[in-house]
Amino acid sequence: MLDDVDRRILRQYQRAPELTLSALAERCAITQATCWRRLERMQEAGVIRGQQAVIDWRAMGYEVEVSLRITLDKTAPRAFDEFLAAAREIPQVLEIQTFLGRVDLRLSVIARDMADYQRLYRDHILTLPHIADIEALMHVARIKSDEVLPV
């Protein structure tokens, strides 16, 4: 169970993961040793899963983002497994989500421009196994994108 000090550390760590241990401890009004022990404990418990660099894909030349809602032909016994294995191999697929309901999966796909997206769609997406239905939703604007949790 997390206490108030753990929550304080997590709030500061989420806001600024690049902080040094001493700066994080100072912001949390605790000693460096306490901060380090608590961070270690939360990592071991799986509360903190790691750090990662977040790269702006637009800065890397990708201008198009599309959500693909996909329904699979579930008469094939391994439809999900085979689809997921193939979809994971496409580098432009940034995210794969599964759902219960009419839509089985959602792929988040990026492309450099519309011509690149059309090539990707035709040559890679449409060749994925067991697709019964597919709907493309073109992203217009990202209103909120935040992974900071309210702790």
Automatic annotation (TrEMBL):
GO terms for biological process, alphabetical: regulation of DNA-templated transcription; response to amino acid
Any one Gene Ontology cellular component term annotated for this protein: cytosol
Picking any one GO molecular function of the record gives: sequence-specific DNA binding
Work out whether the entry's keyword set contains Transmembrane helix: no
Q: Where is the signal peptide?
A: none
Q: Where does the chain cross the membrane?
A: none
Which superkingdom? Answer: Bacteria
UniProt keywords (A-Z) are: DNA-binding, Transcription, Transcription regulation
Where in the numbering of this chain does the HTH asnC-type domain appear?
Answer: 2-63
**Family annotation (InterPro entries):** ArsR-like_HTH, AsnC-type_HTH_dom, Dimeric_a/b-barrel, Tscrpt_reg_AsnC-like, Tscrpt_reg_AsnC/Lrp_C, WH-like_DNA-bd_sf, WH_DNA-bd_sf
What PANTHER family does UniProt report for this protein, alphabetically?
LEUCINE-RESPONSIVE REGULATORY PROTEIN (PTHR30154), TRANSCRIPTIONAL REGULATOR AZLB (PTHR30154:SF34)
Q: What is this protein called?
A: Lrp/AsnC family transcriptional regulator
